[in-house]
Write a structure and sequence with these properties.
By secondary structure, this protein is of the alpha+beta class. The protein has 2 domains: 148 residues, Four Helix Bundle (Hemerythrin (Met), subunit A), CATH 1.20.120; 278 residues, Alpha-Beta Complex (paralog of FGE (formylglycine-generating enzyme)), CATH 3.90.1580.
C-alpha cells in the first residue's frame, strides 16, 4: 500500500532545499508504488479493457500519468527535450472523453511501463539538480508536489475502476479497526458557533495547495449544527425502507428524473438477496454493514436523504469551518486535529483499508468541536456548486480548475479511504457531476440553529 511522509509542519517557501528535495522524492516514490500496485495486480488484458464507459482503461491512466510528468517536470521545469511529443494528443484528457479512449492507439502495457520508468529516471535527475526559487513552478518544489498529487488522484481513479471491474478480487487490504468504545455514545450533532473564520489558504501556508484552494479569505458563517459522523448505511437503509426512492417530495427535479430514468432504488453496488441488502466491494459480495458510512451515493441521493431527515447538506463554508476552525484560538488549522500531517491514528487514508471505518472512528482526528471523520473514509458532498474563491487566479493552467467552475459540478470535501495524504487537507476541494455514483462519496447533514 502507499506510504506517506509525516512531519510536524508543512514544507514552506523557506524550507531548506534538502528538505524540499526529500519531500518531493518521497511523495513521487509513494505515488509510483501505488500506481504499480494498481496496475501489476491485473493482467495485460484487464489493463487494456474498459471496465465501464465512465472510466478509462487502466493502461490509459498509466501512460497519462507519465505523459503529464514528462510535460511538467522534464519539459517545463527541467527544460529537457521532449521524450514522446507524439503521444501528447492521445493522453490529453480534454481531447478524448473516457468512453472513446479504448479506440485510441494507446501504448500497450509493456511500452507504457517502459515509458513511465524512463520518464521517472529523468525526472529524478531534474529533481537532483533543481533550485527551489525564482520560477513559481519551482518555489517550494510546487511542480513536483503538483505532479505527485496528480498521480495519486489518478491512482484513486484507477481504484474506482477496480471497484467497477467484474471478476474475483485483485486487491486485498486489512479491515479498519472497530469503532472505539465511545462511538455509540456520541451526540448526533455538534453545534458550530457563528462568526467569521478564514477559509482557503495561501502559498506561504500551504505551498502545495492547488489553485482552487486559494486565496485565503474571511467568511462569515451563521451558527449551525452538523452531524458528528457521516451518515451510515444503516441510517440510509431507513430512508430506502421508508420509500425514499419512490417519493418525489424529497428529490430535486433533475434528481427525480434521473431516479426514474435509471430505476434507482439504492446506492450503487447494493442489491437485495434473500431479503437482505448486500453490496459488491472490490470483487467481494458481503452484507451491507450498518455501522459504516454510506458510500457510492450521488449528490441527488445525499440531498434527498437530507430532506427526508428534515435536514440539509452543509454548505462548503460550513463544512470547512467545522473541520478547521479552532474557537479557542480563532485560527484555521491545516487539518481537524491540528497542523501535523496525517498519521494512521488520525484518519483512514491512503488505500490502507479498502473500505470506510465504522462511524465514530478516529477520535484522535476529531475537530476542536468534536466532529469526527471529516478527513478520510468518504468524500462528503456539500450543498454548493464548484465556484472560484474571491481573487482566484488560475495556476499553472486553466484546465485544472477554472474550466469546471459553474453550476454543473458540486463540491466534495474531506477525502475518502482512497485518497493519499498528499492530496488531502482541510482546504482541499474536489468536485463532480451531481449524478456521479461510482466515486467514493458519502455525506453528512446539517441544520440551521434556532
Amino acid at each position: 500500500m502507499t506510504a506517506h511522509v509525516s512531519s510536524d509542519s508543512p514544507v514552506t517557501p523557506g524550507s531548506p532545499p534538502g528538505a524540499l528535495r526529500r519531500r518531493a522524492y518521497d511523495e513521487l516514490a509513494a505515488a509510483r508504488a501505488r500506481t504499480a500496485l494498481l496496475t501489476d495486480s491485473v493482467d495485460d488484458g484487464e489493463l487494456t479493457a474498459q471496465h465501464s464507459p465512465l472510466m478509462s482503461p487502466l493502461v490509459w491512466d498509466l501512460a497519462h500519468i507519465s505523459n503529464q510528468e514528462e510535460q511538467w517536470l522534464l519539459r517545463a521545469v527541467g527544460g529537457r527535450e521532449a521524450l514522446r511529443p507524439d503521444i501528447d494528443p492521445l493522453y490529453d484528457a480534454f481531447e478524448h472523453p473516457r468512453a472513446t479512449r479504448p479506440s485510441l492507439p494507446l501504448l500497450p502495457p509493456p511500452e507504457a511501463r517502459a515509458y513511465a520508468a524512463e520518464v521517472r529516471d529523468r525526472v529524478l535527475d531534474v529533481l537532483d539538480r533543481a533550485r527551489f526559487d525564482g520560477d513559481p513552478l519551482l518555489d517550494a518544489a510546487f511542480a513536483f508536489g503538483m505532479v505527485a498529487q496528480h498521480e495519486q488522484q489518478h491512482d484513486e481513479t484507477m481504484l474506482i475502476t477496480h471497484q467497477l471491474r467484474r471478476g474475483p478480487a485483485a486487491l486485498t487490504a486489512p479491515a479498519p479497526p472497530p469503532a472505539p468504545a465511545d462511538a455509540a455514545r456520541l451526540p448526533a450533532e455538534v453545534r458550530v458557533p457563528g462568526g467569521p473564520f478564514t477559509m482557503g489558504t495561501t502559498h506561504e501556508e500551504e505551498p502545495w495547495a492547488l489553485d482552487n484552494e486559494r486565496p485565503a479569505h474571511v467568511r462569515l458563517v451563521p451558527e449551525f449544527f452538523i452531524d458528528t459522523v457521516p451518515v451510515t448505511c444503516g441510517a440510509y437503509r431507513r430512508f430506502i425502507d421508508d420509500g425514499g426512492y419512490r417519493d418525489p417530495r424529497w428529490w430535486a427535479p433533475e434528481g427525480w428524473a434521473y431516479v426514474r430514468e435509471h430505476g434507482l432504488r439504492a446506492p450503487l453496488f447494493w442489491r437485495q438477496e434473500g431479503g437482505q441488502w448486500v453490496r459488491r466491494r472490490f470483487g467481494v459480495v458481503e452484507p451491507v454493514p450498518d455501522e459504516e458510512p454510506v458510500l457510492h451515493v450521488s449528490w441527488y441521493e445525499a440531498d434527498a436523504y437530507a430532506r427526508w431527515a428534515g435536514r440539509r447538506l452543509p454548505t462548503e463554508a460550513e463544512w470547512e469551518k467545522a473541520a478547521r476552525h479552532d474557537p479557542v484560538s480563532g485560527r484555521s488549522r491545516r487539518y481537524p486535529w491540528g497542523d501535523g500531517a496525517p498519521e494512521p491514528r488520525h484518519a483512514n487514508l491512503g488505500q490502507r483499508h479498502l473500505r470506510p471505518a465504522p462511524a465514530g472512528s478516529y477520535p484522535d482526528g476529531a475537530s476542536p468541536l468534536g466532529v469526527r471523520q471529516l478527513v478520510g473514509d468518504v468524500w462528503e458532498w456539500t450543498a454548493d456548486d464548484f465556484l472560484p474563491y474571491p481573487g482566484f487566479v488560475a495556476f499553472p493552467y486553466r484546465e485544472y480548475s477554472e474550466v469546471f467552475f459553474g453550476p454543473g459540478h458540486k463540491v466534495l470535501r474531506g477525502g475518502a479511504f482512497s485518497v493519499a495524504p498528499v492530496a488531502c487537507r482541510g482546504t482541499f476541494r474536489n468536485w463532480d457531476l451531481p449524478v456521479r455514483r461510482q466515486i467514493f462519496a458519502g455525506f453528512r447533514t446539517a441544520r440551521d440553529a434556532g
